[in-house]
């Protein structure tokens, strides 16, 4: 199989979102209607929906209060030249998360430094309800990715989503196992740990705030519960040993 044959716009777009630490948020300026750009930190819900933690006093939040339409642009930060890397723009509507418990846990696991201000009265968690996406993945690779394709279907994955804290705790108790993945995959040196999981795979990060990096692991098949997830991780590890 050639590189062209193996290229998947959906998989590439999902990986970019899951590996991103920051994104360019574009809103519509209240008084003029001009595009208004901001830098925000992001995480993802289990299905891939972007999560934002924003001050309601910020200019972009005031823009969104009047018009919730927005976009997020994320890029591949693993390459030296950003023009050579892939980037995806996700468009949709931003809404405040009424019960942010699970979203807050996932966000703070990914961005623990945000715990310093996440509890402030003017801060709140939001999500971008994805409508569509546009991927640029190199010369001649610019294409639409439908929102329904970008996001994972969680209809049969409620047991796995509920078991996420327990599974993460088991993986955290075996740092040698995760370190072996990093060596095999040639990731940069760092104290790698799994910070999130979903039916498709795992989000892995270094624990250093100063040089925090993220990687995405896609498992051989989708999982719906803890047992199937562990089975897929074991199959992925076996394939990794054979490479």
Give an overview of the whole structure.
The chain has 243 residues and is α+β, with helices and mostly antiparallel strands. The protein has two domains: 148 residues, Pnp Oxidase, Chain A (Roll), CATH 2.30.110.10; 85 residues, Split barrel-like, CATH 3.20.180. 33% of the residues lie in helices and 31% in strands. The chain is built from eight helices and ten strands. A six-stranded antiparallel β-barrel has the order 1-2-3-6-5-4. A three-stranded antiparallel β-sheet has the order 8-9-10, sandwiched between helices. It is globular and about 60 Å long.
Distance between the termini: 16 Å
Oligomer: single chain
How many strand units? 10
Question: What structural category arises from helix and sheet content?
Answer: alpha+beta
CATH H-tier superfamily of the largest domain: Electron Transport, Fmn-binding Protein, Chain A
User: What profile does the largest beta sheet have?
Assistant: 6 strands, antiparallel, barrel
For the residues shown, what is the average pLDDT?
92
H and E string = HHEEEHEEHEEHHHEEEH
Q: What's the CATH first level of the largest domain?
A: Mainly Beta
What's the total helix number?
8
Low-confidence stretches: none
Sheet-strand content, in percent, reads: 25-35%
CATH topology of the largest domain: Pnp Oxidase, Chain A
